[in-house]
Design goal:
The chain has about 425 residues and is an alpha/beta fold. The chain has 18 helices and 13 strands. The protein folds into 2 domains: about 260 residues, Crotonobetainyl-coa:carnitine coa-transferase, domain 1 (Rossmann fold, 3-Layer(aba) Sandwich); about 120 residues, formyl-coa transferase, domain 3 (2-Layer Sandwich), CATH 3.30.1540.10. It has a 6-stranded parallel sheet, sandwiched between helices. A 3-stranded antiparallel sheet has the order 7-10-11, with helices on one face. The protein has a two-stranded antiparallel sheet with strand order 8-9. Helix 1 packs across helix 8 and helix 6 packs across helix 9. The longest helix is centred in the middle third of the chain and has 24 residues. It is elongated, with a radius of gyration of 25 Å.
């Protein structure tokens, strides 16, 4: 069997929220031994979202914290911190996303731990990063999104409120950037024997997504207003209403007999996203919709002219899309080389998206506390070292005895005494 990419790498996981947990989930999928350090008295943020306040029944935690083992230990006790220090000596990566003061107070910050493990890779994923007046502020993805201007830019120009999009976008991007940084740090250690501190600021990750906007302001003193779904470089470019009814009736059959149940009422909400940025794509678009007479009008002859007449163009295109199912429209346009995609709801993704099904992206796992549910699979496909099958997120403290015996060589008597003293759980 092929060796896994991160086989032999051990990670101590002090992560919270979504960004860093997603990074470490990927580490576990590619062979690393990721150990979640947990405590029922101070549960990880997502565990607090559990159904019936059960820390093992949080849908968000059970998604983001897959492919790990869990060590239950009370870090407010000296004995608990001593256990962690012993584990650090035999680990490769320490990853945390607490406020900086938390790890300092526990003596588990980078400056303290590099004396214990000089070649360790220490990952800190904070909203604001180290340094600066906001360093100690607690934050989550939505905050970072607002501060960088993403929320404002994702709005519609005529909207009376600056609400914009509600995606937690920095989390998703920061998790992937952090994974790349970890691979680079591991390679650097392999070549030099030296460890590294990775200071990942979600604010700066989010700002990097819109670098051209910052440059436009600083160099040209120009700030374009929010454009909704439109673009300065493509026309048509937007979401267009299609024929159909989003059927939210409960009980859609899925693989293995599992149903997806969404209790909302049926609603008309079917859309397709279309983006045409070149003359070649425009010609393909015209052919795909049957070359109606209006496509030969001079006001749509070039990209510049289409941008000038974009409102009329959008209205004419929606006359075509409204007559078609969004999946039908997508296939017609894609076959003509036009970038187009269905704006999918959850039911579409589970039951109708042929691409996701072909790549086995929707998987099903049975969690001992939460039951059977659907999850997103690993999108990265490696031919010689494929990702391991996904494992359910561990119960709080599920592997405590196993980890202490296997890694630290503790006896059952020692473990029983630590549990009696409420150092471990």
């Amino acid at each position: 069997m092929s060796r896994q990419v991160l086989e032999g790498i051990r990670v101590l996981d002090f992560s919270n929220g979504a960004a860093l947990p997603e990074t470490l989930k990927m580490c576990g999928e590619f062979g690393a031994d990721v150990i979640e350090v947990a405590c029922s008295e101070y549960p990880e943020f997502l565990r607090r979202l559990g159904i019936d306040f059960d820390p093992n029944k949080s849908p968000a935690h059970n998604d983001a914290f897959r492919n790990r083992r869990c060590l239950g230990v009370n870090l407010t006790t000296p004995e608990g911190r001593e256990i962690i220090l012993e584990l650090i000596k035999v680990s490769d990566i320490i990853a945390e996303s607490y406020r900086p003061s938390v790890m300092v107070n526990w003596g588990l910050d980078y400056d303290s731990l590099k004396k214990v493990k000089p070649d360790m890779i220490y990952v800190s994923s904070h909203g604001w990063g180290y340094g600066g007046p906001y360093e100690g502020f607690q934050t989550y993805g939505p905050h970072a999104q607002h501060v960088t201007g993403l929320t404002w830019l994702w709005n519609h120009q005529d909207s009376p409120y600056p609400i914009g999009g509600n995606l937690i976008h920095p989390d998703n991007i920061a998790s992937k950037m952090c994974f790349i940084a970890l691979l680079a740090a591991l390679d650097y250690r392999r070549r030099t024997g030296k460890g590294q501190l990775i200071d990942l600021s979600q604010i700066e990750v989010a700002a990097g997504l819109i670098g051209e906007v910052y440059l436009d302001v600083s160099m040209n003193q120009r700030l374009e207003p929010p454009m909704g779904n439109r673009s300065l470089y493509a026309a048509p470019h937007g979401c267009y209403k299609c024929k159909g009814l989003v059927n939210y009736e409960p009980g859609y059959p899925h693989m293995g007999g599992t149903d997806i149940r969404v209790p909302q009422e049926p609603t008309e909400d079917c859309w397709i996203a279309i983006s045409v940025s070149s003359e070649e794509e425009w010609e393909g678009f015209c052919r795909a919709i049957g070359n109606p007479e209006w496509t030969t009008n001079q006001k749509f002859a070039t990209l510049e002219q289409r941008l000038e007449n974009v409102e009329e163009l959008d209205r004419l295109i929606e006359e075509w899309t409204r007559q078609r199912d969004p999946f039908e429209a997508m296939e017609i346009l894609q076959q003509a080389g036009v970038p187009a995609g269905v704006v999918e709801c959850a039911e579409d993704q589970v039951n109708k998206d042929k691409q996701l099904k072909h790549r086995s992206f929707i998987i099903e796992l049975d969690h001992p506390a939460a039951g059977r549910h659907l999850y997103l699979g690993e999108p990265i496909k490696l031919s010689r070292t494929p990702a391991l099958p996904s494992r359910y997120a561990p119960l709080l403290g599920e592997h405590t005895d196993e980890i202490l015996q296997e890694i630290l060589g503790m006896s059952t008597q020692d473990i029983a005494q630590l549990r009696k003293e409420k150092v471990i759980e």
